[in-house]
Specification:
Number of helices: 20
Number of domains: 3
Shape: globular
Order of helices and strands: HHHHHHHHHHHHHHHHHHHH
Largest sheet: none
Radius of gyration: 31 Å
Oligomer: single chain
Distance between the termini: 66 Å
């Protein structure tokens, strides 16, 4: 009882801090402080030695991501901070969890059941407080009948016109009283604080059961041969069906390996060495359509191999040739993945950087990791759960890594220095975050040169080609940022905003 009471007090204090940090505030140092506070409370309550290895890894990712929110103030850092924090709290509260997918699912279930958990915890803690206990019991006795009475009153009013007419005045007065009570008690700030209580409780206390951890614990990491037991008087089952599947798989892999070998030979000769944009060639079609079709082919190849090596075919005494062909197909798909990367690389070299192009690289990197882990799965006879768990952790690490980079500034710097000025998307400059404003101020002439090159193109695919209009919009963006920065409180502070403010102030003082 004492532990429950202390936990409720901790949740209430965390909710007060959350309200103080986030009410009418943007995301900044407040998220960093709250994440570190949450991890600190979990560390005190559960102890570092009792944390599982997944909990420690996710905690490290949460610390890095939360700090990057203050450093960069980017959306990806915010997403990474919340995701890693949710995963870490789930791993701490349910130490048997192993995968990040299960951990995030467990936190979501815990969030959904938190209101019930709070009510149950309050009921458990109240017996030590006599006055509140009696009030709680009396409140439950009165509230339930009133709720039922309200439901039947509404039903009878809707079903009987005379009863409705007789009670109309009472209902109007009662409705006005409820509106006044609602306006006085249920304010936006009160609702936000209620959310803060539920959110803090979902991070610090386990309201849901261990059914998800129990379900995940049934999944093994290493495959086992499944033997079909028959009655003693029946003859043993033959391996005819399994052997036919093996022969079919061998034929399939020989054919697709030969086909992919031809594709890879063409790509290596065409894309890997001395690639040039030929006259009349659409580089966008070359990348946009070709890239995704080839990625789909890699994913389809992985799905086929997962199906072939799903069961006892892994233990067939004559599966050596099948394993070698599967390994060859995976190696060829890896080469195909490099070709896809080079397509995107050539496109960036011609048109510059953009978020979608970076996203293709990140997604492709995860696909290549999936190919490597699939090879290890086949070679070491791992289960599908093992494959999903390892790749989910790879995605987790990539997400944290993405949070450490200021992508907006990187994209703008690269594109401003790009050699192909007439193919850079100048419309995208003003669509970026405020962090890039100092870069645009410092290199406005470079932007104007890119606009001039665009005007020489036969096909104009950008809208912003007027330097004066660009200068006016840039000035508006600067004024809006400085106004917002001056009005924000310390909770929303980020180092990125501070750097931007200082750089813009310096540019204004220099007369730029």
């Amino acid at each position: 009882m004492k532990t429950t009471r202390n936990l409720l007090i901790t949740v209430l204090l965390a909710a007060v801090i959350f309200d103080r940090l986030f009410w009418h505030q943007g995301i900044g140092v407040n998220l960093t402080l709250f994440a570190l506070l949450t991890l600190g409370v979990l560390l005190i309550d559960h102890g570092w030695r009792r944390w599982s290895a997944p909990a420690r890894l996710s905690a490290a990712g949460a610390v890095v991501s939360a700090v990057m929110v203050t450093v960069h103030g980017s959306v990806i850092a915010t997403i990474a901070a919340f995701a890693t924090l949710f995963a870490c709290t789930a791993f701490v509260l349910s130490p048997r969890l192993r995968s990040t997918v299960a951990a995030l699912s467990a936190w979501a279930v815990n969030l959904a059941t938190t209101p019930i958990g709070i009510v149950s915890s309050v009921g458990e803690a109240l017996p030590g407080l006599q006055a509140l206990r009696h009030g709680w019991r009396r409140g439950r006795v009165a509230i339930v009948p009133l709720l039922v009475l309200t439901v039947f009153f509404a039903l009878y009013s809707g079903g009987n016109s005379r009863f409705n007419a007789m009670t109309a005045g009472f209902m109007d007065s009662f409705g006005e009283w409820l509106d006044e009570l609602f306006d006085a008690v249920v304010t936006p700030h009160a609702l936000f604080f209620l959310f803060a209580v539920v959110f803090a409780a979902s991070l610090l206390m386990r309201s849901a059961g261990e059914w998800l951890a129990d379900h995940e614990s049934r999944f093994a990491e290493t495959m086992r041969r499944v033997r079909v037991k028959r009655a003693q008087w029946l003859p043993p089952l033959g391996m005819g069906a399994l052997d036919r599947e093996r022969r079919m798989a061998v034929v399939l892999l020989v054919l697709v390996n030969a086909l992919l070998l031809a594709v890879n030979a063409i790509d290596i000769h065409w894309i890997w060495f001395g690639f040039q944009v030929e006259p009349g060639m659409s580089l966008k079609e070359f990348v946009h359509e070709g890239t995704w079709l080839l990625i789909v082919s890699i994913l389809l190849s992985m799905a086929i191999l997962l199906h072939l090596f799903r069961g006892n075919l892994n233990f067939h005494p004559k599966n050596r040739l099948l394993t070698l062909l599967a390994t060859a197909w995976l190696a060829q798909n890896f080469i195909l993945g490099i070709s896809v990367f080079l397509r995107n690389y050539h496109y960036i070299g011609f048109h510059g950087l953009a978020y979608k192009r970076i996203g293709v690289i990140v997604f492709l990197a995860l696909v290549l990791v999936g190919l490597v882990t699939l090879y290890l799965k086949i070679r070491k006879r791992r289960t599908l759960f093992h494959l999903l768990r390892v790749n989910a952790w790879a995605a987790f690490a990539v997400l944290v890594g993405l949070a450490t980079v200021d992508w907006d500034s990187l994209i703008v710097r690269y594109n401003l220095a790009h050699w192909n000025q007439g193919e850079i998307d100048v419309d995208n400059y003003l669509a970026m975050s405020d962090k890039v404003l100092p870069l645009l101020y410092a290199d406005r002439e470079r932007v104007f040169e890119q606009m001039s090159k665009h005007r020489e193109n036969e096909v104009r695919w950008v809208r912003q080609l007027d330097p004066e209009a660009f200068r006016i919009e840039l000035e508006r963006r600067k004024e809006r940022f400085l106004e917002r920065n001056a009005e924000q409180d310390w909770q929303s502070w980020t180092w990125a905003d501070e750097r931007t403010r200082a750089a813009l102030a310096s540019a204004t003082a220099d007369g730029q």
